[in-house]
């Protein structure tokens, strides 16, 4: 197992470099960069997106240095912006300098927030981790019992109608479900049961311990439910199929022939083997919820987490934040992949990745 883990760790380096190369290259061709953003703000025209559409652009636009949003600005000002942002250097030199800093986890300072990227990520991470952790736990608490029951009642009416509900849950995008929850339960058009935004109330610091717990649960209910829906559907079907696969094996038939009760057969013999893939996949499921749902859910519910930070950074073209978070998230996802494999071995020591790799 040690040699397998070492190989996987060494593969992280070229994989992470490849991710950064692709994304860095793409940003070189995306219009509306940070210089255009600032130029548009200086000229009082909102943001650069109103300029890159080409509306009103003609032959006599006064474009400076090739920047669509820099109409009417002196070339000296544009050159100063280029120097401050580092765009006066060739792309390859900028990329190598960036990756050299990233090796020491120096991600620089946000261009539009005047705060280091590390401090910004540390500040926003608790919200995203909380959302991802509770959503993953809720998905497991619902999916495992439901999947087991569907497996034991395969082909019945219960299995049929629950499958219909699961398919609908899988097909509904998380952000659309989040909007539906807001309309129904956050005062949109029907009931004002849950708050519309945030994870805590304004007077959270003045509440008692029990009051803080209730306030937090009250605010977190809708975001957690919205981000759980897709992972819940996938985990339920995974649990059902895993149990069905084990139930039809010879050792289960033998156990039943010996006179063991159905509960003893199911939970004494089938459960460990069937739950292997479900339990071992916990890190990857959490990471999927953490990355996949956080951007849209945090934006819809106005949660100040990493997802919303990434969205705002992309809109502002805040490249230090974009590439810094991309580097951290890419590294985390690769490490979590290794942890998932280690979880398989922990749950079932019979698994040997080294022999399979050979």
TrEMBL record:
The keyword Amino-acid biosynthesis does not apply. It is found in: Cell inner membrane; Cell membrane. Keywords: Cell inner membrane, Cell membrane, Membrane, Transmembrane, Transmembrane helix, Transport. The chain crosses the membrane at residues 9-26, 129-148, 160-186, 216-239, 274-301, 321-347. InterPro entries: MetI-like, MetI-like_sf. CDD domains: TM_PBP2 (cd06261). It is a multi-pass membrane protein. Its main location: membrane. It holds the Pfam family BPD_transp_1. The keyword Transmembrane applies. Residues 125-344 form the ABC transmembrane type-1 domain. It comes from the Bacteria. GO terms for biological process: microcin transport; transmembrane transport. GO terms for cellular component: plasma membrane. Belongs to the binding-protein-dependent transport system permease family. This is Microcin C ABC transporter permease YejB.
């Amino acid at each position: 197992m040690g040699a397998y883990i070492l190989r996987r760790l060494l593969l992280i380096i070229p994989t992470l470099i490849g991710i950064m190369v692709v994304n860095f290259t793409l940003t070189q061709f995306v219009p509306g960069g940070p210089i255009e953003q600032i130029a548009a703000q200086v000229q009082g025209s909102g943001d650069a997106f109103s300029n890159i559409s080409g509306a009103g652009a003609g032959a006599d636009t006064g474009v400076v240095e090739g920047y669509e949003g820099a109409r009417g600005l002196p070339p000296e000002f544009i050159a100063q912006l280029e120097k401050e942002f580092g765009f006066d250097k060739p792309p390859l030199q900028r990329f190598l300098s960036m990756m050299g800093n990233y090796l020491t986890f120096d991600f620089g300072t946000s261009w539009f927030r005047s705060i280091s990227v590390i401090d910004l990520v540390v500040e926003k991470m608790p919200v995203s981790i909380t959302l991802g952790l509770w959503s993953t736990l809720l998905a497991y608490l619902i999916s495992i019992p439901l999947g087991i029951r569907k497996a034991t009642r395969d082909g019945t009416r219960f299995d049929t109608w629950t499958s219909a509900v699961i398919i609908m849950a899988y097909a509904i995008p998380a952000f659309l479900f989040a909007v539906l929850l807001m309309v129904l339960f956050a005062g949109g058009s029907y009931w004002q049961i849950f708050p519309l935004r945030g994870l805590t109330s304004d007077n959270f610091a003045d509440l008692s311990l029990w009051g803080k717990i209730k306030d937090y649960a009250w605010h977190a209910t809708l975001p957690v439910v919205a981000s759980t829906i897709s992972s819940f559907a996938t985990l339920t079907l995974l649990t059902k199929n895993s149990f069905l696969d084990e139930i039809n094996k010879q050792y289960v038939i033998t156990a039943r022939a010996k006179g063991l009760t159905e509960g003893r057969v199911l939970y004494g013999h089938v459960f460990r083997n069937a739950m292997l893939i479900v339990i071992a996949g916990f890190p990857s499921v959490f990471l999927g919820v953490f990355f996949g749902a956080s951007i849209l859910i945090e934006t819809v519910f106005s949660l100040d987490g990493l997802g919303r930070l990434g969205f705002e950074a992309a809109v502002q073209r805040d490249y230090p934040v974009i590439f810094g978070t991309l580097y951290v998230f890419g590294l985390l996802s690769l490490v979590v992949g290794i942890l998932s494999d280690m979880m398989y071995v922990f749950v079932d020591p019979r698994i040997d990745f080294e022999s399979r790799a050979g």
